[in-house]
What we know:
Blueprint: H1 15-21, H2 24-27, H3 31-47, H4 53-72, H5 84-96, H6 109-145, E1 150-155, E2 158-164, H7 165-190, E3 192-193, H8 209-216, E4 220-221, H9 225-230, H10 233-260, E5 267-268, H11 287-310, H12 325-345, E6 350-351, H13 353-359, H14 367-376, H15 381-397, H16 407-413, H17 442-457
Parallel strand pairs: 3-4
Antiparallel strand pairs: 1-2, 5-6
Amino acid sequence: MAKMWKGRFKSKTHPLMEAFGQSISFDQELGRQDVAGSLAHAKMLHAVGLLSNGDYKAIKKGLDSIHKDIESGKMRYDPANEDIHMSIEAELTARIGEPAKKLHTGRSRNDQVATDLRLWTREKQDVIMGRLRDLMNALVDVGQRERHLVIPGYTHLQRAQPVLLAHHLMAYVEMFARDRERMADCRRRTNRLPLGSGALAGTTLPLDRDMVRKELGFDSLCENSMDAVSDRDFVIETLFCLSLIAIHTSRLAEDIIHWTSSEWSLAKLDDAWSTGSSIMPQKRNPDLLELTRGKTGRVVGSLVSLLMVVKGLPMTYNRDLQEDKEPLFDAVRTVDFVLECLAAFLPTLTFDKNRAAAMLQDGFLDATVLAEYLVEKGLPFRSAHEVSGLLVRRAEDTGRQLRDLSHDEMRAASPLIGIDVYQRLDPARTPGSYKTAGAASPRSVSRALTAWRKRLAK
């Protein structure tokens, strides 16, 4: 049993209970944040007259030395101290003696852990946003390199209309940009200070919470002491943001898995990012991409796990909330590593221009262009759609492409079709005819590449 509880209890905690209740095995991750919070708290206690000058100097010196040991990896945690807060306080007591007992004045582990976790989460949110920026830059780089390559675009996994590969990649840039916006917005709500709320009701001591807020770089205070110690919305929000990032990386991975498959043969994996088979010598497996896809379930599972933890909790702090850390830590580590790997992998991906050109010849990718050509000639779209469909069926039945049909065959379907139609019926040139803002046209894609390059440079 930790020494600080001996005044209340007569007997020692059962060893199984100690093992079951401990969190030091994983919440030591919060060591730097716990020291930072304690330093700010001690400085405030001194400022309001609750710590003498000598005690404050001793506490600061002790905490600084603990911080140094944490940073260097020399810090060792005693399993008998069930969590990071008790471990650091016990270590401080061992180093400086009696003054350490004054550090916990006016605070509870409830507001302490909430503060530590917000500090940790805030830091990791910034890391993830940086990783997203790196991945977006990689996508823009590949898009710029392959800006002239036309590939089939798909709906329902069926070839639909020609698009620039860069446009396809820039769709993911848009997704990851929204992910950054969500994380930044989540960070704003994370960056509120709980410390000073005590166990749940505040304290009778004259603490200066705003001083601590400024010292730790929080934007504002948690305004309700009960909410401050029990709120884990910021963790759930962060896990949601991470889950959506993981889903987006999984979609990107799935597309590249298709492109690099033997059936597509549109792209090739670099040897450095491929693995072989234990039995089939010819294999080049996309393990990075498959693991990216697979780890998404793990991240989403972390979100669901914490949602289930908090769904029925009464006010205010309950020990169930100890279960908030492992899902968060794991999800952050997972997404961080996935983003880092994908940003390094993407520049190595190469595309086969001849294969892309061949893929454009199947699937009647210019059928929509033909329908829109007829609309320009004055035919209502539904009628134009029907005419184009009839011509697709004729070409398909005779093993030809639309541009292989004779002008007489075309006019038999609609007298509005002129000889100029053949200028439109080349899927490789189709993107050049897209006119709407945000379309897969060379002009629109070039504009997007330039705009994102500037935005990411900031």
